[in-house]
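JOB MANIFEST
job_type = single_chain_structure
chain_count = 1
residues = 309
[input]
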Amino acid sequence: MSEQQPKKTPNNTQTIIFMVILSFACALILSLLASALAEPKELAKDLDRSKQMMIAAKILSHHGTFLMQDKEGEYLPAKYETGGILVPGSEKDHATNAQLLEVYKKRLIPMLVNDKGDLFTFEQAKINEDEYIAAYRKAGYYQQPYKLIYKLLPNPTSGAKSEKEQPAEGWVVPVNGFGLWDAIYGYLAVAPGGDKVIGITWYDQKETPGLGANIAEEPWQNLFPGKLIFQEPSSGTTDFKTAPLGIVVVKGKVSEVLGDSPKSKSAVDGMAGATLTGNGVTDAYRNVLAPYRPFFIRIHNELQKEKKS
């Protein structure tokens, strides 16, 4: 009977080669997956940004239902009809992604504002829209010679005028700044008069859950509609050229800190344990809105002229 030969064990070189090949294969698979998922991931981000902008503009509720105003100006649930038209509905009429994108494209038109407050289309400014929006998303559009702003159009109806001829129901400004831990990004929708807030959202933030992260929650965001972005003086007559511009997040409750003073009209309650996040939000609104002042003055003056004529 022959003796059993001992099994050969791989030497160190073979082990290292095997590990290198395995690592390379894993890295290649992960790289291919990341590449394949990059486009769907970016599309998902674009869809979320569209939703957040519509929430700020009061076209969409935080719960995924379209909104429209009644004759008294109250926002009620709406549902989608062909052509992006919204009609009265119920809270059960949740919007699909396809409907969201169609309404977004019909109701929110990206435009540009220069330092003098003049309004341009991307075509008039000879700027590529996709490249511009992608290039300055992180740094902030407010720092550019041409600043991004979205024109909020009315709910479309049959025989509606072209986009250029339709009056704006509001304007949406992209806002960015820094919270406690990292950058924060959101939207601020302003009424046609250039002063009153329609709504806000903060869609990208890394603040502390249960504290600073509350800036992304509906209850806190609901404190903003109706607030004035130009601080009203004690005289009651606001000079848009010199008035402090922005919305202040106070430490505590506005009713306790400012009472019913004019400053309270441009302030919201702070979040317990999140003073630094609140300061970051205050700074973001002040810094971002300042370059848009000439535009807000222009649309305010135009609206006043229309009321007098």
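[summary]
The two ends are 116 Å apart (CA to CA).
The longest helix spans residues 12-56.
exit_status = 0
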